[in-house]
Design brief:
The protein is of the alpha/beta class and 378 residues long. It has 15 helices and twelve strands. The strands form three sheets. The protein has an eight-stranded parallel β-sheet. Strand 2 and strand 3 form a beta hairpin. Helix 4 runs parallel beside helix 5. The radius of gyration is 20 Å and the shape is globular. It starts with 14 loop residues before the first helix and ends with a strand.
Length: 378
């Protein structure tokens, strides 16, 4: 503690200051795309407000000298209950994009979940993960072209990713007012399309190579990116395509969680896409206990949407989440200082989590439950 007076962090420690600094560093289009949400951004606000309902109840004289942050998720032992969430088109915030995130994630000993719309090919990111002894999951956006979907799944499995995270809440891109005002969608500039432009099934749809006619390739991507016709029967098909554990992301209703598990999913992520898809949607944290109550004995339940600090993670974990996904904070770190920025944000988050756990009188993440919390009634 003595040395802290002499050392000033390179990046802002407080999330609010970190966000401001990153937004100032980015151009208006990229800043709005990363920081913004659907419509009037009521869901983004609600995600944060939902945490105000809960307060941690510290307990005293519990011997917290030795603390254990480890958890088991999808049969994997994780050093901490944290996964870096899938965030697409990271080249709009830093040129090293997902490669930098993979490097930092390995140093932090937390998994990276790679977005389908990454700026580097999934194989290249997997190679970086392997080089630095990290762990990688692959997030799938389900294409309307089943051959493209199959190809992406097969590539992820061959590259060594350890889980498949299927995002269900984006069959269509939402109404995002910031992006509309800036006339900005990075995909239309060819950003975030490395996995498509290198995919044999996608290339089979084109008359010429993307390098010769990028505009035509971009238009083809837009045509087949999502599939609003999907039903639960299609999840049966998808889980049959891979030996990887399948986690479905974007779950809010407990009936949907139960349906996903019945259809072969190994876990769910309670999430509203960080408020980016449906304006005035129910906050994810509000639905977490209901989903845990419905499927928590049968499957792993992860949580994202609104996590900013270690205390937020404690609340979500005490409400039954097996792990949380951290999104915007690490992206802001990436924007400011590449891999070092991601690493700094992650280190701060994990230190905050560890200290808050101990000061709450708890020795392990696995020991957290509803008794750690007090519910505020407004």
């Amino acid at each position: 503690m003595q040395g802290m007076a002499d050392v000033t962090p390179d990046l802002p420690v407080r999330f609010e200051a970190l966000e401001r600094a990153a937004i100032e560093a980015l151009d208006d289009g990229a800043a709005g795309y990363v920081a913004g949400g659907a419509g009037g951004e009521e869901t983004m606000d609600a995600n944060r407000e939902a945490f105000d309902r809960w307060r941690i109840v510290p307990r005293m004289l519990r011997d917290v000298a030795d603390r254990d942050l480890s958890v088991e998720v999808l049969g994997q032992e994780l050093a901490a209950p944290v996964i870096l969430a899938p965030v697409g088109v990271l080249s709009i915030v830093h040129e090293d994009a997902e490669l930098a995130v993979a490097e930092a994630a390995a140093d932090l000993d937390v998994p990276i979940c790679l977005s389908t719309v990454s700026s580097y090919q999934l194989e290249d990111v997997a190679e970086t993960i392997d080089d630095v002894a990290g762990t990688g999951w692959f997030q799938l956006y389900w294409s309307s072209d089943r051959d493209v979907t199959t190809s992406l799944v097969e590539r992820a499995e061959a590259a060594g990713y350890e889980a498949l995270v299927v995002t269900l809440d984006t069959p269509l891109l939402s109404w995002r007012e910031r992006d509309i005002e800036e006339a900005y969608l990075p995909f239309l500039d060819g950003e975030g399309l490395a996995n498509y432009f290198s995919d044999p099934a996608f290339l089979d749809r084109l008359d010429v190579d993307p390098g010769e006619n990028e505009l035509a390739a971009i238009r083809e991507f837009v045509d087949i990116f999502g599939d609003p016709s999907l039903t639960w029967e299609d999840l049966d098909w998808l889980t049959d395509q891979t030996d990887l554990p399948v986690v479905v992301k974007g779950i809010l209703h407990p009936d949907d969680a139960a349906e996903a598990i019945d259809r072969g999913a190994a876990g769910v992520v309670v999430s509203n896409h960080g408020g980016r898809q449906v304006d005035r949607a129910v906050p994810a944290l509000e639905m977490l206990p209901e989903v845990v109550g419905r499927v928590g004995e049968e499957a792993d339940v992860l949580f994202d949407s609104g996590i900013r600090r270690g205390s937020d993670a404690i609340v979500a974990l005490a409400l039954g989440a097996d792990a949380i996904m951290l999104g915007r904070p690490y992206v802001y770190g990436l924007a400011l200082d590449g891999a070092d920025g991601v690493r700094a944000v992650g280190q701060n988050f994990l230190a905050d989590l560890d200290l808050t756990l101990g000061l709450a009188g708890q020795r392990s993440i696995e020991g957290l439950d509803r008794s750690v919390l007090s519910e505020r009634h407004c």
